[in-house]
Amino acid sequence: MKRVELIVIGGGPAGLSAAIEAAKSGLKVVVFDENAKPGGQLFKQIHKFFGSKEHKAKVRGYKIGQELLAEAEETGVAVVLDATVIGIYEGKEVTVMVGDAIEHYKGDTLIVATGASENMVTFPGWTLPGVIGAGAAQTMMNLHGVKPGEKVLMLGSGNVGLVVSFQLLQAGCEVVALVDAAKQVGGYGVHAAKVARCGVNFYLSHTIVKAEGDDKVEGVIIGAVDENWQLIPGSEKHFEVDTICLAVGLSPMSQLLKVAGCAMIEDPKRGGTVPVIDERGETTIKGIFAVGDVSGIEEASSAMIEGRIAGAAAANALGYLSNEDFKDRHKTGEKALDALRQGMFGPENKGKKDLTLTEEGLLLSQSLLQKGYLEEQEMGAYPGVKTEIKGIHPVIECTQNIPCNPCQDACVKGCIKIGANITALPVVDTQLACTGCGMCVAACSGQAIFLVDDHSEPGYAAITIPYEFLPLPEKGAIGKALDRSGTEVCQAEIVGIKSAKVMDHTSLLTMKVPAEMAMKARFYKAIG
Questions:
Q1: CB count, 10 Å around CB of 457?
Q2: Is 367 a member of any domain?
């Protein structure tokens, strides 16, 4: 039996963060991960993170994964791959299957970061080839460069469903519909809006009736549901698809903790069966910690912070970190976590369907919640939209209280203000002149900022949009401008293209449209 000061089970964002934080204090740490590559879900995540600088805001998930792996190597963390932990026993003894061999370890402390598994739903035809989970679709696209299908229907409008729908579009798939039995979009409105303006229709209060096909998925039938979740006869709709993608939630993989004897509770707001933990992540068994999705489903940003706190707590428990230093690290971590857990998507609001106002007292857009996009007439109510400004200026279509503030840091002139409260709606300062640099457009993790220049040319307006599709159109290309609903509204000419390393693969397209389309045109579609 091998003895280790700290054993971390799971090499995802939470586990690696915990291992790094503990190793920095001098602990000998080993991480076991059942996969062939560490990093967990991070390497599937090609979108930019939300939050602030300490939350890795505007950094893409796979880059954060690369940074964590490099940091783990620098701090001397031993990572054992293709290693499946099959049991935790009394005295913190761990049995690991590495290849075909069974190995036994004893840890002074354990940190369990086993993550979560995708939920599934059943319907006639759900076992046909072509019905896949959203995580599987991400693996195919973002790790292996394989399109999951040509025509895809997405079930689920939470952040996972919205983000993966956009990534399917980036991979060249057609997303024929986004379906959810809930009455309103479950994820961030900015995620929904960038999918809607690509032309994807949302069918809320709908569910899958059945998948069609003999040997594989060839079509799908959906139908509307009533308030009791019962199918409304005659509401069925048919789509020709070859893929049905399911994004219907995650469940904590907490079985090891249960077997180890940790006290468990059933908490729907945290995703299901989770361990009882204290503010440091320690379970009811002293020296065993649980972090990340295994202790409650949240974003990867939160998982990394939880990991850092638990890693520091393990170092403190074993005498490698003083009580005073641990208190400082814990306080910093809790402050960062608290910022991420604010706003309408915070834990205290999870499951609430009656939210009608923003923190500022403004009406939430019902169109955004029910259709996935904002109506033009709603825009003027929000502080990021100042129609009285003439010339070039930012239009910020961020209308929900989500924890994010990169736009504030991106504006060198200070035209955009959020303030100390990270979930406050961004405000455009009418007294300061925009330079038109576009850095706020590139920095926005939700792709919700546009530059509007209504004085670019008589009779026309120039609209600068974030663009993350390949190939990029050429300057002078003529295409179609789409509005927020994805409807073609006018002809558009590309008059500017800006790409730079600092923009991290978000290009800025400037398209010339008729002046009356300045507050309508929000996406560019190439012809042919």
A1: 12
A2: no
